[in-house]
Amino acid sequence: EAQVTQNPRYLITVTGKKLTVTCSQNMNHEYMSWYRQDPGLGLRQIYYSMNVEVTDKGDVPEGYKVSRKEKRNFPLILESPSPNQTSLYFCASSSIGPAKNIQYFGAGTRLSVL
Amino acid sequence: GDSVTQMEGPVTLSEEAFLTINCTYTATGYPSLFWYVQYPGEGLQLLLKATKADDKGSNKGFEATYRKETTSFHLEKGSVQVSDSAVYFCALSDPGDYKLSFGAGTTVTVRA
User: Fold this and answer.
1) Count of CB atoms within 10 A of residue B86's CB?
2) What pLDDT shows up at residue A47?
3) DSSP3 helix / strand / coil % (chain B, rounded to 5)
4) Average pLDDT in the B12-30 region?
5) Quick check: A76 pLDDT over 80?
6) B89 touches chain A (CB under 8 A)
């Protein structure tokens, strides 16, 4: 089954404690990205990756890091989380080419930073 | 930059009612347009899309037509069911880009 898997689904942490949210896809997609969803703002892109070792900033990258060492994985790293990063996070992936922009989303990670 | 504006919710309907969610956009060039749906506790799923002017996307009884003259992509369904209760997002992407720009989302609740 084609899927994007995020872990954990729920996370409560404290300010300044480093955390990583994992994302893995089994569709051999080149493109992967992270979004955050906030009430009234829709989804905003944090970072994206066009392929292994190729990453770039989205619209709201401050306070986040990513890496793309393998094609299937695209972890999101918060090195020093702050309360304003409390949000619902989604990982997405898609192929590059004629079927581009049919993006597949993970089930989401709800993060609370106290 | 690109932006998407969709009608604010929440929207509450009775089963078999007609649903319309308005969506307008601002973009340079000719973007692709999408509707995504988010069921409770789940990630977003592509509902339908249109890639050029006058295209009509359709799926699961939902329809939306790409109107370049009014820069709109309104979502419609003629007879909703309780299972259509979800958050609906209008989105666009530029031809040379993979990033999706989303509207704020519209929460739809259908009552039996």
Assistant:
1) 21
2) 97
3) 5, 50, 45
4) 94
5) yes
6) yes
